[in-house]
Every structure is written in structure tokens, then in C-alpha cells.
Amino acid sequence: MENFLQQLLNGITWGGIYALIALGYTMVYGVLKLINFAHGDVYMIGAMTGFYVAHALGFAGHPSMVGLLVTLVCSMAVCALLGALIERVAYRPLRGAGRLAPLITAIGVSLFLENAGQVLFGADPKFFPPLLESRELVRVGALAISNIQGVVLATTLVLMAGLEFVVMRTRFGRAMRAVSFDAPAAALMGVPVDRVILGTFVLGSALAAAAGILVGLSNPKIDPLMGIMPGIKAFVAAVLGGIGHVPGAMVGGLVLGIVETLVSGYLSSTYRDAIAFVVLIAILLYRPTGLFGSAQTEKV
Amino acid sequence: MQRRRASGAGGRPAKRLGFALGACMGAALLACGPGGGASSDGKTAAPIKIGHYASLTGDTATFGQSTDRGIRMAIEQINEAGGVLGRPLELISEDDRSITEEARTAAQKLLQRDQVVALLGEVASSRSLAAAPEAQRTGIPMISPASTNPKVTEVGDYIFRTCFIDPFQGAVMARFAWDELKVKRVAILFDFKQDYSVGLAEFFRKTFKDLGGEIVADERYTSGDIEFRAQLTTIRAANPEAVFVPGYYTELGLIAKQARELGLNVPLLGGDGWDSAKTLEIGGPAVEGYYFSNHYAADSDSPKVQDFVKRYRDKHGEVPDAMAALGYDAAGILADALRRAGDTSGPHLRDAIAATKDYDGVTGKITIDAQRNAHKDAVVLKIEDGKFRFFRSVPAS
Question: What are the tens digits of pLDDT across the range B305-334?
Fold first, then answer.
């Protein structure tokens, strides 16, 4: 039982990372109907930024909560800018050009970031500096929660709650929902659609950066291609929750993380990556709108 | 291809050219053919080209870099002493980025573009296995400095190695766990994408069971994974007294950290894949008190080892790991064989390498056996105070 709870906890922590990345996918899809395939690489840039910031500011050798927070904020800021830049350069010029063209530029941006990353950071894996001294936080029988898992969980929850607040309680959030519901109508009502889209990219990219830092903290190996797999998995999580649906992405990410962990823990880790795609196929076959999505009739 | 080599050494350019034309060989090969002939005339002391394909970047970058440094150091020393057969040695290194398929391409480049007389490489068994058929097909001897999977030299009679093999290494650690640590319940966590790790796990499992021990959990992971908590939780539930993790250093560091976080405080045991300064950098205090089998101990008191360590440290500012030592020995054995072969032709060189006996290297006395494997001792190292310490030596049986 304790081991099952431990696995569940491992799964939730891991799934939280997927959820943070999935949120970016789902929000962008909500306002633009675009799968932003470069999103996984923004997460990589987030982790890399954290690595360099931590070293530059001297947090690498001195683990502390302050160092972690500063690194987190810096990295989120850098990725927010990057997200805005990507939107401005790669997607805005193609607004109204159909759905296929921006999808292709998304893949282009993704490949650009991966390869530029290899040139800039080197292809060798880097090891994220320990920003927190690992120690036990809670121990119940065999169930052990480390402070790192605790921080990852808490940060994930705080960010999700913050996002939920922004989306549901602020003017920007309302504008975002309006654009997502019907962009032309929102524009007619005076909603600055382009600015809302830019804001969505900023928000999503900052969350991806946070995911990058959290992975650096709990699984400290980072490299320029680290974003590919989590990017795809987070996309699956977003589809699982119902793409375009914000709480859906959170639940989708957590479910995927838990399923993956249970599969590796009780069956075999050989199936770890396969299971995400089995989930994707199953959900597309039996519930294409995802767990929370509602069916929409396409108007012709 | 073998014939082209042989006639190249014989120095009959006209006939070779005709042969090549008749065989419809590519323009590139034709261009290279006469060049090779000129160098074997012996008038100009053209260097003897040796190829090294290695993981100079990527997941196991330190393996390739260390091996390359070791080889270069050996070649420098040999050249200072006048080279081999009156000619200096020249090393051409090719990066395979730690990718299996790339190893094959890198080996092809060295064999075809650079026309090397012998190939050195790789550390990872999967990558040696990918490249070995190329060397075998071309009739150019290949010496792997550190691939321990038995299959590597089974590719053919041109493939050699200068390290011991997995059955020996796996058995060493199984016996060590049983005799020295006196544990009876062991869990295994191995990388099922790496032939090296699979091989080590297999021989450890077999030996440990034969001794009367019990394998209480048998879990796997994939190279490149960063999350191991699921497998480690399962292992923790089985309550082992030690865990055998025969992987490479990158994953080991993460595994060690996550194991400690989960409160899995039993010793981890491993093989030579742990031998990298990165193990200490990534693992930090988490890898303290763990044991692994290795090819040599840098803190050995043998003068040969101490001389090697000193030279290496003067040049690179760090203690050489086993990969550097094996690279050094592989290049040394190759030079020794070239001297005995008398020329650089593939078959002669092959025979000379196969006849290597009691070569006195920094990783011990090396004899190449009938299976083209190196017969030599192993050592067990313990990680203590952030250093690899010699723990005990295990003779070749």
C-alpha cells in the first residue's frame, strides 16, 4: 500500500511537469487553433536558461530557496520573451493563411531551436546545479517525500492556481476566453486579438520554462534535445484532457504521469513511452474531444 | 578490398590500377590508391594512419574524449621514440556523437576516405558492434579499447579488444557481492537498450544465482531516461541488500540521487561504465560508498601506472580514468603489433595483434586469447570521499 502511494506520488510529481507544458499547448490551441510544436523546445530553453542563470549568479554551489526562486523567475521571463518572439516572427505573418502553414512553421521553429541549442549549448548533456539540498520532508512507513518532490508539487499547484485565476478572474483572461470562443466576433467587440494571442504565448512559454526548471531540480540532466519527448507527451496530455480546455490539460498531464509511472512500476519500463501513444490512439478513437472537451458542430 | 590492400603494400601500381578499374571501383578509391602506394615505397617517411572513431560528444562524451587523450598520449610517446617501422604514427579521430548508427558511418569514413591501416574504437559495445562489420569486411584490424560485450569480437577474425569481457566482469561483481559484502538478496536495474548493460546484468544474474543468492527484483530503463523513481520504488518494495546497476555514468548519477531520495540506502554496484569524473559530479554525495569493477586503479602503486598518471595529469590536469588507460594500451598494443608485423598490410597486422602475449600495459599484463579477447585482471573500486579508491583486485581465472 505504501509502495502504491509512493508510485502515485512519483506519478503526480512527474505528471505535474507534463501538465505545465500541456497548458501551453492547450491555451495556444484555444486562441489560434494551432498546435505549437515548438513548445517542447521552449521548455528546453527554460531549463538551459536556468542552468546558466544559476551558474552566473553563483547559486550553483550554494543551494537555497532564494536562488531557486530567482532562477525560476529569470527563466520564466526569458521564455516569456522567447514565446512572444516566436509568435511575432513565425506565426503572426501567417495569420489567416489557413491552418497548415503555421503548423509547418511551428515544426520549423522547433527544429531551429533544437539545432541552434546544439550549436549554442553543445550536444553534451549538462547537469543542472542542485539548487536545493535534497532531504526527507515527510516519512510515513516506507512512503518518503523529499523536499525536492515537495517543491515541485507546490510550484506546480501554485502556477496552476495562478493560471486559473488569470484565465477566469482577469480582464485579460476574459479576453482570452472570448478570442478562443469566436475570434472575429471578439475583434468586432473591441478585443485586441493580436495582443491577446501574444499574451497567451507569453503565459504558456513561462509555464514551460517553470517545467524546465522543475525537471532540472528533480531530474538534473538537461540537453538540447530534451524537449522532444516531453513535448510530444504533453501534447498527448492536452488532447487527453480535451485540447483547448485549461483544467483538462492539468488533469490530462497528471493522468499521463500517473499512468506512465504505474506502468513502469508494475509492468515494465519498456512500455513507458509506448503507453502515452496508446492513450493518444485510444482517446482519438473513443472520445476524440478528450475527457473534458465538448463536441462542437463544424459550421460550413 | 583485401586484395587492394595487399597489393598496395606490394607496390605494383599498374596492376592495382587495372584491378580497380576492372572491379568498377569508385573514383574516390582510385584517387586514394596511388597515394597509399607512394607512402609504402618508404622513401618519404609518410605517417602510418590510424583511425579512431569515438563518442567525443553526446551522452557518453567523457568515454570518447578520455580514450582519445589516452591514444594520443601513447602515439606521442611512440613518435618521440622514433615511430614504428621508421614512420611516425598519425591519429585521425572521428566523432560518432554517442549514436549507434553514427559509429558505423564514422568507421566507414576512416576506412574509405582516410585509408587507415587499423581502427581503434569504441567504448560502448553497441557502437563497436555497429562498426566492427565494416572493419571485418574491409580486412582492416579493429581494436576496441573498452567494449566488454562478448559479441564484439565474435564479429570476425579482424576484431580485437584490450579489455576483459562481460561474463568475467559480471561474475566479478556477483562474487564480490556474495563473498565480500555478504549479501543474499540483490536487485538489478539495467539499461535494456545497451548491449553492454544487458550482458553484464545477464552474467551477474547467472553467477549470483549459482552462488545461492536471490535476485529479488529485475527492473530496466532506457538510455536517456531521467526519471527512475517508478523502478526504484518497485525495487525498494522488494527489500534488497544491494542493487546492481550496470549502466553508464549519466543515468547512474540520476539513479543514485533518486534512490537516496526514496530512502533506498543500500549500496549500488556497477561495472566500468561508471568510470568517469561525471559520476562524482552528477551523483555527488549520493554515490558515496558504492562499488564498481574496473580495468585499473589510478591509485595503484605500480611505477608504470604512476608514470602514466603523472604524464596524463601534467597534460590534462586530471587523473586519467580507465578509458584513457585502455586507449593508451590499445594504441601501445597496435604499435607493438605493427613492429612485429613488419609492414602495414591488414592480414600481417591482424596476425601480429593476435600473437600479442604478456604485453605490459598500464591496465595490467595483456594476452590476446584465441577469441581475440584480452586476458587480464580486474579491480574493484569503492567511491569514498568523492574519489575512486582501489578496493581489491580480482585475478583473471
Answer: 999 999 999 999 988 989 999 999 999 999
A190: left (phi over 0), alpha (psi -120 to 50) or beta: left
Asked if pLDDT for residue B40 goes beyond 60, the answer is no
d(CA B247, CA B224): 11
Q: Name the residue type at position B217.
A: A
Q: How far apart are CA A213 and CA A20, in angstroms?
A: 11
Residue type, A238: A
B193 part of contact set with chain A, CB < 8 Å:
no
Nearest to B188 by CA among B227, B240, B143: B240
- Torsional class of A98: left (φ above 0), alpha (ψ -120 to 50), beta (otherwise): left
| Alpha helices (H) in B239-276, listed in sequence order | 249-261
Q: What is this structure's pTM?
A: 0.79
Q: Is B229 close to A124, i.e. CB distance below 8 A? A: no
Question: Residue range B330-347: average pLDDT?
Answer: 93
The C-alpha of B199 sits at a distance from chain A's nearest C-alpha, in angstroms, of 17
How many other C-beta atoms are found inside a 10 Å radius of the C-beta of residue A157?
A: 12
Task: Compute CA distances B314 → B47, B296, B298, whole Å.
Answer: 27, 19, 14
Q: Do residue B261 and residue A149 have CB atoms under 8 angstroms apart? A: yes
pLDDT of residue B106: 95
Which residues in chain A have their CB less than 8 angstroms from residue B262's CB?
Answer: 6, 144, 146
pLDDT tens, B137-189? 999 999 999 998 899 999 999 999 999 888 889 999 999 999 999 999 999 99
Nearest to B256 by CA among A65, A221, A68: A221
Question: How confident is the prediction for chain A on average, in pLDDT?
Answer: 90
> Where do the domains of chain A lie?
12-227
For an interface test with B, the pick among A124, A137, A229, A267 (most B C-beta atoms closer than 10 Å) comes out as A124
State the cell numbers at A234: 504533453
Q: Across the interface, which of B57, B220, B282 has its CB nearest the CB of A127?
A: B282
User: What ipTM was estimated for this complex?
Assistant: 0.85
Joined grid coordinates for residue B336: 607493438
